[in-house]
């Protein structure tokens, strides 16, 4: 059915010339189905984490209203995508307080970088911002462990290779439609790489060729490059995170976006690379078939 409805399309993170094919996605689905019997097994101590749970799936600062006088939450909006699903599929740190880089779970608190006092002022300000961001996520972790231990237990479970493994399950729904084939492939590759950690009695039922791994790693490098660049723009206040702006700032943001895209493309070392950089710039409209 996927082959009948989906059409080959460009994925510029992967190639500037070759189209991403629905058949590649179907191959990943076949691999996923081979893994399902193994990654969905669970012991009785995990049963509580599988209970259906009502969850707001998109908590960010624009969805939460706070009374500035009492510093209490008065409203939470955008409930239209609320879901009821097993807790381990829902559990995560809300993106409004997620640190840009993964933080290990546990009680080790973040520290400022070595040599902080000798850094130039601009670098110290950047270090301060990252330190505050890490502290914010750690504070959320501590409060969650204290006030919502089931949620924290689910977060900790998902940080291990103990079944049920949620990443492939999270990644597969609508992966083609939402342009998340890379994420699905990455989750399956991770399971294959950590198969021994699952303590399974059978060999891993899936594998990837060296060529598939090479193409995936190249795409990952391209994605990481763009994400790092966007993070720099956002840290500098040049472009907003997620492209979200207030209506009154929209025109200014559009002009800033255009200028930063031109600056980004000026780094190209060839016309071919410039064309590629034009295609992967994230803040732009794209044709449906692209």
From TrEMBL:
Taxonomy, superkingdom: Eukaryota
UniProt protein name: Aminoglycoside phosphotransferase domain-containing protein
Family matches, as SUPFAM superfamilies: Protein kinase-like (PK-like)
A GO-annotated cellular component: mitochondrion
């Amino acid at each position: 059915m996927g082959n009948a409805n989906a059409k080959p399309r460009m994925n510029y993170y992967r190639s500037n010339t070759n189209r991403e094919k629905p058949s590649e996605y179907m191959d990943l689905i076949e691999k996923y189905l081979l893994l399902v019997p193994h990654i969905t097994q669970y012991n009785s101590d995990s049963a509580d984490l599988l209970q259906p749970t009502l969850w707001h799936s998109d908590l960010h600062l624009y969805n939460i209203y706070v009374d500035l006088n009492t510093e209490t939450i008065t409203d939470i909006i955008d409930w239209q995508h609320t879901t009821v699903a097993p807790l381990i599929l829902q559990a995560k740190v809300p993106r409004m307080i997620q640190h840009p880089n993964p933080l290990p779970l546990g009680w080790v608190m973040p520290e400022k970088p070595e040599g902080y006092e000798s850094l130039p002022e601009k670098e110290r300000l950047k270090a301060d911002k990252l330190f505050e961001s890490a502290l914010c996520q750690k504070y959320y972790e501590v409060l969650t462990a204290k006030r919502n231990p089931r949620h924290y237990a689910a977060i900790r479970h998902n940080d291990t290779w103990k079944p049920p493994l949620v990443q492939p399950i999270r990644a597969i729904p609508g992966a083609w439609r939402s342009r998340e084939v890379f994420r699905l492939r990455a989750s399956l590759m991770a399971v294959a790489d950590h198969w021994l950690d699952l303590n399974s009695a059978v060999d891993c039922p899936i594998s990837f060729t060296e060529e598939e791994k090479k193409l995936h790693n190249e795409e990952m490098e391209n994605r990481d490059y763009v994400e790092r660049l966007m993070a720099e723009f956002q840290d500098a206040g040049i472009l907003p995170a997620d492209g979200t702006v207030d209506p009154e700032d929209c025109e200014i943001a559009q002009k800033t976006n255009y200028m930063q895209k031109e600056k980004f493309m000026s780094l190209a070392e060839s016309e071919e690379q410039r064309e590629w950089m034009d295609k992967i710039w994230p803040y732009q409209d794209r044709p449906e078939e692209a």
